[in-house]
Design goal:
Distance between the termini of chain B: 18 Å
CATH class of the domain at 105-233 in chain B: Mainly Beta
Radius of gyration of chain B: 32 Å
CATH topology of the domain at 41-167 and 178-198 and 464-494 in chain A: Serine Threonine Protein Phosphatase 5, Tetratricopeptide repeat
Helix content of chain B: under 10%
CATH superfamily of the domain at 105-233 in chain B: TonB-dependent receptor, plug domain
Helix content of chain A: 40-55%
Largest interface: A-B, 111 and 105 residues
Strand order of the largest sheet of chain A: 1-5
Largest sheet of chain A: 2 strands, antiparallel
Oligomer: heterodimer
Chain lengths: 494, 999
């Protein structure tokens, strides 16, 4: 009897031990791994890459400060004491390296770059399973997005760590800064590759997906920043000649919900928030009208400056389409409210949302609004600028006039045609047109830096803390320097 | 109903068991210390099975036959008395307390051991140390009572404390394992504090090694009450009282705020704010805090006969939180049965049923500190006001939100914990025991977000633009099976062996399902719980649903041998092999073990009959164990699928890698050495215990925050070594002044040296954590040490700035002047930051004083920590103008005005750099508990037929001496960002009165 008991016990134990590995093998429940994702292929990673363009640090609150609040066209806005450690340091150049928004901007851009590298790595690992066309297209899209993100980084920080491959081995985590030139080379290579493969158009199902024109238009800007005028002009002219873009959209429609992905749009960040979907972006909410009740549309930052107000030519209709003044009756019949303790409140009208959309989304904060990154008017003005530098005066004047003609909105008595042929004076006209046409649109700060006029215009706008040789660039975030154990070197002056 | 119950209990008679034999011997047993009768003492006629127990008056009566001449009296906690009958008919016996209970057994995991034979560090607490204290969780009550155990309490209703045993050895999952009557649990919410007979805290690796994988952060073993054979005990206990916040955060009142805010505006060149519409002076903290009720009622019945042992208990506990409208209540019922079928077979089981309900706080603590005091909660028309525009959008009216959200979350759950065992004794020395446990939890919550807006016309805010409901149901399933075989043998009264081998298998699973539904105008969902289910509303496309599940599994084989030679030389050895589901198969198994040795010096002949040293044991042990307390599936390349690609109005499903998977993650390994002594002096009056511990955690599991340029996070890596080292000292003294006056003093102190020996390995980085990046886990410093600048003073003038080292950014008079730590560059920059404080105390200590006079007893417990810092994150916020803390009243207003508080101006980044300016000293000394009790004398008890009756009053957290400026110096947090005060729930003072009755 006892023997039997032992035999049974030993048998039971043996079974248990043999069953161990099965018992300990626990597969993820209710979630996918790269191996179990059912569709296979690449598309999920490509869409995932695009979703990261909506990241908070890439195109939302930090972005607004980096590209706009630093300029002479915008003030911090909101109430005087608000945002004291967030947007105020951008506005008045009191920035220290531990600035939180700058850290988020830096890290989120690299998060998005990582997704581009994921697509590149996955395309290689799946190469045998996908068509050549699919492979090339995935790479073109990834390299376009990566080039675009690095362009934002290099303009903000100068040379940054060059990560053009997926890093998985911890031995390679600590990447030093590359030079500004190396980053520009990477951007050019990426965008040139993309321009060679991306389609000229994607059709309705994928409207807004980057095209050949997007890559060429962006390349035009990348060359412009390096004063490579001929290459820039060539790229702009490629876009112009493609015939896919025009200025048919009235200026006051471009920035409404109805103006998303029009024939003017060369590249814009796609967002949606409605009854069914919530894949929005926090770009608008920081800048929306800071009212109460139904007019509480946001936090009221990035306020058009008095310098911008005064920069418009008399009668330029674009002023009214760009700036919301206190007390103004808006195109939707709403009244811009006062802000307690703030005289002459102004808001960025280019992020002003339609009340019908607000009601439909059940939200007042504009998360559905696309972010316009590259418009056809921008391409024309880049062409004008490059042409003027190359002494192709009549071309320059022609491109300039196209933009002004649309701006007139049919009123022939305003915005007279520019006929200036002196290169230096025409340069001023083109710069002025660029400032006005693209006001509050992410260009001004970078433009005044590349034109070498930042100190002059910023000091004139009362931003007297701006120091030449320092504040053109943001500090490398202190946390990143600390994390790198000193491998990352701080920008001068910080 | 209660009355009937009481009558029933009174009528339960406790008789004397007697055998009708030749002659009756009777007598009375009293306790030496108070001459009070001792009920329940076992009386046995030596050499026979005949015996009985004393009744409530301490009387016994027993039949003895011819030739039976010796009676043996035994009682737990007292020395055994052996009495010759001689010719006597009446025998009165005085039982002497065995104060230090060395013969007492302690629970050591899969078994018990005599306390004197233990070679590791195990602290033992009695149930009475915790049961009467007004806490949701019995662990709250051990604070300051046990050396080496740091308890961080929370004032939240029903909350469990954070427990760290001997420092922080792990970055992930630093909580200990709980073992309740053998059941492994991650918390002990389901345990009725009045059921606890003893609590053992295993601290050193050799004691813990038998728990292998699960025990790396310490084990707390809880054993519930059993009755003595032949006894039936009924215990009723109740207390009730209230809790009150006594330490508020000192903020400015309306007049002070207006002055400081306008001063700030003028410092920034802005116009003064027109406060003419803001005439109130509101103390928001006062409005969101309350004196909160706490009560506990418990009934337990234990009974035991020759063949059957049973216990049954009921408990009800309710605690309202001091922050409105936090509330928690709990009902538990437990039944335990054990049957001795014959001398070979014993079977038994128990079941606990536990139900809880919780209502979360709806008031925000930081909200009340940040809201400016210049407006009243409500206007004259009864409408809630909004804040002035400068903080209207960011800081809501604390009272309005609290009231709108009141009662909108309904959260409740059940838990059933059950076990069954069979124990076989065979071949005399062998015991086979198989135990199966199940722990099933069900939780459900539903809630409502109202559509609401408030504020006067033109000043309204509308936090929600629609109403919504949500529901979530979850289940937790844990089961465990243990099989052990024990061989115990005593040879010649000299060699005592116990060898144990076994295996244990555990599965932990959970799943949940949840959803939400919105109701927009005109279909606003009504504010009534009857409607708060997902079925409400129309077919709203914004509805969401979600679900998920998790599983983990463990399997272990264990072996242990304990050996004692002549009670003098002790040796304990253990080995364990653990497997876990957390790691890839090739890294899944780990081998752990321990060895411990002891020498009872007082058993040696040269020490025999020593009057000064009654007992002395020297001991040393070493052990190695593992930790796998990380998330599940981390070695898999998981995808995050909650994202989408958007093109125009079209949405396409997307996936992105959740992290860079690390297929090589493996066991975190803890190795420790422990040495010390236990001694008893002066006829048991004085006890002393000391141990030195030195514990290293290698291959710590950590999420390394990789450089941003990598663009992804890493799941987990094994990177780094952490050292915890220190000394624990426990001293006790008990004595009498006279027959009536007795007193005890117990003191303990622990030193903690926590140091990161390596981190990041080949990555070579520091772990940067905390909301301002102020917490660093770096080589040569404690985990999560504070890092920043050192404030030297305030710049008084431009001349002072000009003569100082080059500053960062724009510096003006009134700004903080930092120390030029690295003076080689004559500049203040990132090189001047240094380690400025530690969140881990150098010392923790406790002191208990007991005094009794006749039937009264008084106890006072003190507890504290020293040598740590707290980072005042809550007062570094600048997202909007906020109410100021009182320290700002001492701000710099001109040369010579202040050298500590900078000028009023939130837009000066220099003054918000992490620095010593934001540090508070974390040292505190708390009068943790004061308790006064009265035990009814036996004469009274006899008349009312009670075994025991006690009434008491208790005050907990009476006063805290501290330098911290927050609600509590017990701040908590994750190990890498510990001690950051970003709004800590107050630890209230609690005053209760209670009664304990035993039949």
């Amino acid at each position: 009897m006892k023997k039997k008991v032992y035999t049974v016990l030993i048998a039971a134990l043996t079974l248990l031990v043999l069953g161990c590995e099965d018992f300990l093998d626990r597969k993820p429940l209710g979630r996918y791994t790269t191996e179990t994702y059912p569709t296979g292929g690449l598309t999920q990673f490509i869409y995932g890459m695009y979703s990261d363009l909506r990241l908070y640090g890439v195109h939302a609150w930090p972005y607004v400060g980096v590209v706009s609040i630093r300029s002479d066209d915008a003030d911090k806005g909101s109430t005087p004491t608000d945002g004291a450690q967030s947007q105020a340091p951008y506005d008045d150049f009191t920035l220290l390296p531990n600035h939180g928004l700058t850290l988020t901007f830096y890290r989120d851009n690299y998060r998005a770059i990582n997704k581009c590298n994921v697509v590149l790595q996955q395309s290689d690992s799946l190469r045998s399973e996908i068509s050549e066309e699919e492979y090339n297209m995935a790479r073109a899209e990834a390299r376009f997005v990566r080039g675009y993100l690095y362009f934002n980084l290099v303009r903000a920080f100068g040379g940054v760590p060059k990560v053009d491959d997926l890093i998985t081995d911890s031995d390679n985590f600590n990447v030093p800064r590359a030079s500004k030139e190396e980053i520009y080379t990477l951007i050019e290579q990426d965008l040139l590759y993309a321009a060679g493969i991306l389609p000229p158009t994607w059709g309705a199902a994928f409207i807004g997906r980057p095209t050949r024109g997007s890559a060429q238009g962006l390349l035009a800007k990348v060359y412009l920043y390096q004063q490579r005028w001929a290459e820039s002009l060539q790229m702009s002219q490629n876009v112009i000649a493609s015939g896919f873009y025009n200025l048919n959209t009235p200026y006051n429609v471009i920035f409404t919900e109805a103006g998303e992905n029009t024939s003017e749009s060369v590249f814009e960040i796609q967002a949606i928030r409605n009854e069914s979907y919530n894949f929005g972006i926090e770009y608008v909410v920081g800048q929306g009208i800071r009212g109460t009740g139904a007019m509480d549309l946001g936090w009221g930052f990035n306020s058009p400056s008095v310098q911008l107000v005064n920069a418009y030519e008399s009668g330029d209709p674009r002023q009214d389409h760009t700036i919301l003044f206190q007390g103004e009756v808006t195109p939707y019949g709403e009244i811009v409210p006062p802000l307690d303790g703030v005289p002459n409140v102004r808001y960025n009208q280019k992020v002003y949302t339609n009340p019908t959309y607000r009601a439909a989304a059940g939200s007042r904060f504009g998360h559905w609004m696309n972010v316009r990154i590259l418009r056809y008017a921008d391409v024309l003005l880049m062409a004008a600028e490059a042409a003027n530098e190359l002494n192709q005066t009549s071309n320059a004047l022609d491109y300039l006039e196209q933009v002004r003609a649309r701006a007139r909105g049919g009123n022939a008595s305003v915005l007279p045609q520019i006929t200036e042929t002196n290169q230096a004076l025409l340069r001023d006209h083109i710069r002025h047109e660029r400032r006005i046409e693209l006001a509050m649109e992410h260009e001004r700060f970078f433009d005044i830096v590349r034109w070498g006029i930042a100190e002059t215009v910023l000091h004139a706008a009362g931003k007297t803390n701006f120091v030449v040789g320092k504040h053109e660039l943001l500090p490398i975030p202190q946390e990143e320097i600390d994390r790198s154990d000193g491998v990352l070197i701080q920008n001068p002056g910080y | 109903m209660k009355r009937i119950l009481l009558v029933m209990m009174f009528s339960t008679t406790l008789g004397t068991i007697a055998w009708a034999q030749s002659r009756q011997v009777q007598g009375r047993v009293v306790a030496a210390e108070d001459n009070q009768p001792l009920p329940g003492v076992n009386v046995l006629v030596q050499g026979t099975q005949k015996g009985g127990v004393t009744d409530i008056e301490g009387n016994f009566s027993i039949a003895v036959s011819e030739g039976e001449n010796v009676l043996v009296f035994t009682f737990i906690g007292y020395k055994t008395q052996i009495v010759q009958i001689g010719g006597r008919q009446t025998i009165d016996v005085v039982m002497e307390s065995d104060a230090f209970a060395l013969e007492e057994v302690v629970v050591i995991g899969y078994g018990t051991q005599r306390k004197r034979d233990v070679t590791g560090s195990i602290a033992s607490l009695k149930g009475s140390d915790v049961s009467d204290k007004p806490n949701a969780n019995p662990l709250n009550a051990i604070q300051g009572k046990v050396a080496g155990v740091m308890v961080t309490n929370s004032g939240v209703a029903g909350a469990s404390p954070t427990i760290q045993i001997r420092g922080v050895g792990s970055i992930s999952g630093a909580n200990p394992l709980y073992v309740v009557d053998g059941i492994f649990a991650n918390n002990i919410d389901f345990v009725n504090p009045n059921d606890i007979a003893s609590m053992e805290i295993l601290k050193d690796p050799s004691s813990l090694a038998i728990y292998g994988v699960q025990g790396a952060n310490g084990v707390i073993i809880i054993t519930t009450k059993r009755a003595q054979k032949g006894q039936t005990n009924v215990n009723v206990s109740s207390y009730a009282g209230f809790q009150k916040v006594i330490d508020f955060i000192d903020v400015t009142n309306a007049e002070q705020f207006k002055m400081l805010y306008n001063e700030e505006l003028s410092n920034r060149g802005q116009a003064q704010y027109d406060f003419s519409n803001y005439t109130a002076n509101t103390d928001w903290q006062d409005l969101i805090l309350r004196n909160a009720f706490i009560t506990n009622h418990s009934l337990s019945i234990t009974s035991a006969s020759e063949r059957h042992q049973t216990s049954f208990s009921l408990n009800y506990f309710k605690q309202d939180g001091v922050v409105k409208y936090d509330s928690y209540s709990r009902y538990t019922a437990r039944l335990r049965d054990e049957f001795t079928i014959n001398k070979h077979i014993k079977v038994g089981g128990d079941i606990s049923i536990f139900r809880w309900t919780r209502e979360p706080q709806t008031a925000g603590l930081n909200n009340a500190i940040w809201a400016v005091p210049v407006y009243a909660p409500k206007g004259p028309d009864g409408v809630y006001n909004t804040a002035p525009a400068f903080q209207r959008a960011q800081v809501s009216n604390p009272v309005a939100v609290m009231e709108f959200m009141k009662g909108t979350t309904i959260s409740e759950g059940y838990r059933v914990v059950a076990s069954g065992f069979v124990e076989l004794n065979f071949l005399k020395d062998f015991t086979w025991k198989s135990v199966a446990y199940a722990d099933l939890g069900f939780s459900k919550s539903r809630g409502y977000t109202p559509f609401y807006q408030y504020g006067a016309v033109g000043e309204t805010v509308q936090p929600n633009q629609f109403s919504s409901v949500r529901q979530r149901n979850g289940t937790n399933t844990t089961w465990q099976v243990d099989h052990t075989l024990t061989y115990s043998k005593e040879i010649n009264n000299e060699h005592v062996f116990t060898v144990l081998g076994g295996m244990t298998q555990q599965y932990i699973g959970s799943d949940f399902i949840e959803g939400s539904r919105q109701g927009k105008e005109p279909l606003i969902i009504p504010n009534h719980p009857d409607f708060w289910y997902l079925g409400i509303g129309d077919n709203d496309p914004t509805r969401t649903n979600n679900g998920g599940a998790d599983e983990q599994a463990f399997l272990s084989f264990l072996l242990r041998a304990n050996y004692a030679f002549k009670d003098k030389y002790l040796l304990n050895v253990s080995y364990r092999r653990d497997g876990t589901s957390k790691f890839n198969p090739f890294n899944r198994w780990g081998n752990f073990g321990s060895v411990g040795a002891g020498w009872v010096v007082t058993e040696e002949s040269f020490m025999a009959n020593n009057d000064i040293i009654n007992f002395l044991k020297l001991k040393a042990s070493w052990g190695r164990l593992g930790n796998d307390k990380i998330g599940n599936y981390l070695y898999y390349p998981l995808l995050n699928t909650g994202v989408s690609g958007v093109f125009g109005e079209n949405v396409y499903p997307a996936a992105i890698p959740q992290f860079i998977p690390n297929p090589n993650i493996r066991w975190e390994v803890v190795e420790g050495f422990d040495a010390g002594f236990e001694a008893i002096f002066l006829n048991n009056k004085f006890t002393a215990e000391a141990s030195f511990y030195n514990r290293k955690t290698r291959d710590i599991l950590v999420t390394i925050d990789v450089p941003g340029a990598v663009g992804a996070s890493v799941s987990q890596v094994n990177a780094g070594t952490i050292l915890n080292r220190g000394i624990e000292l426990v001293l006790g003294w008990n004595d009498t002044f006279s027959q009536d006056w007795r007193y005890t003093i117990n003191a303990n102190v622990t030193t903690i040296h926590n140091e990161v020996l390596s981190i990041g390995d080949n990555v070579g980085y520091t772990i940067i954590a905390g909301p301002s990046g102020q917490s660093r886990t770096a080589i040569g410093h404690p985990i999560g040490a504070f890092f920043g600048y050192v404030q030297e003073g305030i710049f008084q003038s431009q001349e002072e700035i000009n003569s100082a080292p080059n500053q960062q950014g724009t510096i003006r008079p009134g700004d903080i002047r930092y120390r030029n730590v690295n003076d080689s560059d004559n500049a203040i920059n990132d090189q001047d930051r240094t380690f400025i404080g530690s969140p881990i105390p150098d010392y923790t200590f406790g002191l208990s004083l007991g005094l009794s006079y006749k039937s009264f007893d008084l106890s006072v417990d003190l507890q504290g920590v020293a040598g740590n810092e707290i980072y005042r994150q809550r007062s570094s916020q600048t997202f909007a103008p906020l109410n100021y803390e009182a320290n700002r009243l001492k701000r710099w207003v001109g040369p010579g005005s202040s050298n500590t508080e900078p000028i009023m101006d939130n837009a000066r980044p220099n003054n918000f750099l992490p620095s010593t300016y934001f540090l508070d000293k974390g040292d505190y000394l708390r009068i943790r508990n004061v308790s006064l009790g009265y035990n009814f004398p036996s004469a009274v008890l006899e008349r009312i037929k009670l075994k025991n009756a006690k009434v008491y009053v208790n005050a907990q957290n009476v006063f805290t001496f501290m330098k911290a400026t927050g609600y509590s110096p017990e701040v908590g947090g994750s190990p890498v960002s510990f001690g950051i005060d970003n709004g800590v729930y107050p630890i209230p003072a609690t005053y209760t009165a209670g009664i304990n009755l035993s039949f």
